[in-house]
């Protein structure tokens, strides 16, 4: 397995496969085929076989894939065979929703701290968390060794906060602010901006 | 311009360009280059020129792009030179956050109705909206001619609700439920699932 050579677009499909496989496992299914998995995720069987074969031979001709085995392998490849601590920055509506979302822990992520620069929000309890002051953020993240952050601040302050996160040692940012971030090459950014997704659909209408 | 032949991956980048151009316009900028735009969005100048040239000649050698002209063209291409009515299904945390989000209207979308199947939520006010019963959804959406929906219901009911939305005439679904949806080919689905985005990043850590 040579991680450097695998296109990011393939990496982007693996979490979709993993999610579908976990649902199959939850339903008590033991084995699946690339055809069946493909029907669930809307991707061709040939593409799925090709994607998965990048990482080794995980299926058997005729009998298909063992679901738990393939889940284990995908979790290992995506490095979610552990749980990553996550810092959440921005305690607005989306921040609240993310802090209360129960779906992260089973998929490898655990929000452990929440920050906001609004003094009115600092000290507020969100679920089990107390919102902390952004002023303390760099030191808190660095000393805790947190590598992943979710950014739910307004567009106007997103770049500045992202730079502080990088300075604190963060290497992956899930950015909810509707703006592209400029970060060093060794920092990964993924964007969640519903309007861009909507625009990608209305093109076809 | 032959819409059928343009790869979806290019269509997916246009909203990113549009977003960056709108920020430039907000700052009072009049013209830009593919190089400058590329620096903002983290995409190469050559790629941007190639993407935009699929739709015509919008820039001038030497002087670059007029920002307002390119914005107008991209809005026309993405069909957001109008405002689309949107139905929101699911009045949970994410539903609340989306209902209150102020960033849709300027980008072509306007939430006009909110549904939930929880009788305790029906009648609740969220901002200017009153949550309606999902039982009335198909008829309400159909008679209003709404073509776009945001789906923020649990994974267990997402497929069933999606089928009702399709039945009601919806042709684009922004799906926040962590599950792939099976819909007819003439219905577009975009997925927002933060865990899949996180997993795509941790692969590289």
What's the SSE blueprint?
Two copies of one chain form a homodimer.
Chain A (H helix, E strand, L loop, with lengths): L7 H19 L4 E2 L1 H8 L3 H9 L5 E2 L3 E3 H11 L6 E6 L3 H8 L8 E8 L8 E2 L2 E2 L1 E2 L3 H8 L3 E4 L3 H13 L4 E4 L12 E4 L2 H9 L3
Parallel strand pairs in A: 4-5, 4-9, 5-8, 9-10, 10-11
Antiparallel strand pairs in A: 1-3, 2-3, 6-7
Structure report:
The first copy, chain A, has 205 residues and is an alpha/beta fold. Chain A is 41% helix and 19% strand. The N and C termini of chain A lie far apart (41 Å).
Distance between the termini of chain A: 41 Å
Instruction: State the helicity of chain A in percent bands.
Output: 40-55%
Q: Count of helices of chain A?
A: 8
The tally of strands of chain A reads: 11
- Low-confidence sequence ranges of chain A: none
Q: Class by helix and strand content of chain A? A: alpha/beta
The radius of gyration of chain A is 19 Å
Mean residue pLDDT of chain A: 94
**Largest interface by Cβ-Cβ < 8 Å:** A-B, 63 and 63 residues
Strand order of the largest sheet of chain A: 8-5-4-9-10-11
The biggest beta sheet of chain A, please? Answer: 6 strands, parallel
Order of helices and strands of chain A: HEHHEEHEHEEEEHEHEEH
Q: Tell me the quaternary state.
A: homodimer
> Strand portion of chain A, in percent?
15-25%
The rough form of chain A would be described as elongated
């Amino acid at each position: 397995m040579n991680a450097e050579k695998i296109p990011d677009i393939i990496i982007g499909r693996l979490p979709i496969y993993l999610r579908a496989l976990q649902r199959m496992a939850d339903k008590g299914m033991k084995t699946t085929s690339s055809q069946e998995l493909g029907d669930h995720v809307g991707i061709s069987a040939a593409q799925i076989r090709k994607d998965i074969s990048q990482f080794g031979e995980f299926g058997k001709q005729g009998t298909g894939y063992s679901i738990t085995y393939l889940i284990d392998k995908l979790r290992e490849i995506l490095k979610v065979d552990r749980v990553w601590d996550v810092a959440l920055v921005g305690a607005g509506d989306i921040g609240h929703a993310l802090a209360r979302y129960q779906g992260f822990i089973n998929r490898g992520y655990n929000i452990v701290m929440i920050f906001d620069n609004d003094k009115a929000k600092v000290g507020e309890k969100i679920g089990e968390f107390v919102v902390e002051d952004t002023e303390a953020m760099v030191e808190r993240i660095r000393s805790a060794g947190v590598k992943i952050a979710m950014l739910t601040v307004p567009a106007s302050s997103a770049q500045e906060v992202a730079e502080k996160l990088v300075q604190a040692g963060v290497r992956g940012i899930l950015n909810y602010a509707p703006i592209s971030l400029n970060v060093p090459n060794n920092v990964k950014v993924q964007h969640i901006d519903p309007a861009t997704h909507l625009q990608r659909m209305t093109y076809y209408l």
